[in-house]
Amino acid sequence: MMNAAELHDEAIVIDGLICAKWNRELFEDMAKGKLTAANCTVSFWENFEGTVRNIVEMNQLIEANSDLLTKVYTTKDILRAKQEGRTGVMMGFQNAHAFEDQIGYVQIFKDLGVGIVQMCYNTQNLVGTGCYERDGGLSGFGREIVAEMNRVGMLCDLSHVGPNTAKEVIMESKKPVAYSHCLPSGLKEHPRNRSDEELKFIADNGGFVGVTMFTPFLRAGVNATVDDYVEAIQYVYNIVGEDAIGIGTDFTQGHGEDFFEYLTHDKGYARRLTRFGEIINPKGIRTVGEFPNLTEALLRHGFTERQVCKIMGENWVNLLREVWGE
């Protein structure tokens, strides 16, 4: 039997979604939290050119902080990051908007190191519909994008996607898809949360659920602790099982009010979609550096060492290996 700190040191720890402010301070905190790899958002509303600029900036950050970071193209890179004690940066989009209307851009971004793309961010795009408006489902172009993402080895993420579009992507995709960062509506009703039926449907079709800790979507809201986060993990676990679940915190560490204003307006500037209110992470895991507290809390709530290792990162590696075609 290992204690929580020893288990956390041994485990592969993967965060399925971080959109924090990228800087040295954050990367040092990732090292403190023993984070093996993270899906780091490099595109929300940006078009092709804007997203390429973000990738250039991220490449420069990885190079400038190479003592702490390494770029991830394959799951072998994740395992290498673990061996070297660095954090692997998996570049991901929260919107397929950067593909514009060009199917060929999917391959371009894959070649640049993008391995995870969310189909829509909150509203309508050329692929389908987000969770904050009437959902028309996956478009014909969207079906072509799913097929191309399957072909090049890119994970379809459905976290902010409308329920009809999500269901149609699950059915259309030949490879497993994921909610990289979501919470169950069985604990709190919210447009971003997923019903028991939706969670069961993605798992029954070989998909995956990353559980977030974004407090506006947690039952206890801003009063939430790491134990409330574990309650949500337990809830999802009871529906999808121990092989289809992982972590996707949605850490926004270091960002100010302007960032959340950008996120909560369509296209970053148009109509207001929602108000989050106060943004504060659950007590005990307020920062990335406190990640070891999650391992401790999972053990304390009765998960076995094996289950904790799966939830904290092994399941993510298995999913990505299958999707990325390794």
Features:
326 residues; alpha/beta; 6-stranded parallel beta sheet; 3-stranded parallel beta sheet; 41% helix; globular
Characterization of the model:
The chain has 326 residues and is α/β, with parallel strands linked by helices. The protein contains twelve helices and nine strands. Strands 1, 2, 3, 4, 5 and 6 form a six-stranded parallel beta sheet that branches. A three-stranded parallel beta sheet has the order 7-8-9. Helix 1 packs across helix 11. The protein starts with a helix and ends with a helix.
Strand content: 5-15%
Shape: globular
Mean pLDDT: 97
Distance between the termini: 33 Å
Separate helix tally: 12
- Based on helices, strands and strand pairing, what is the structural class? alpha/beta
Total beta-strand segments = 9
Radius of gyration: 18 Å
Extract low-pLDDT stretches: none
Major sheet details:
6 strands, parallel
Portion of residues within helices: 40-55%
Question: What's a quick, concise take on this entry?
Answer:
The chain has 326 residues and is α/β, with parallel strands linked by helices. The chain is built from twelve helices and nine strands.
Secondary-structure blueprint of this entry?
Blueprint: H1 4-10, E1 14-18, H2 24-32, E2 37-43, H3 48-64, E3 69-71, H4 75-84, E4 87-93, H5 104-111, E5 114-118, H6 140-152, E6 155-157, H7 163-172, E7 178-182, H8 196-204, E8 208-211, H9 226-240, E9 245-247, H10 257-263, H11 292-300, H12 305-324
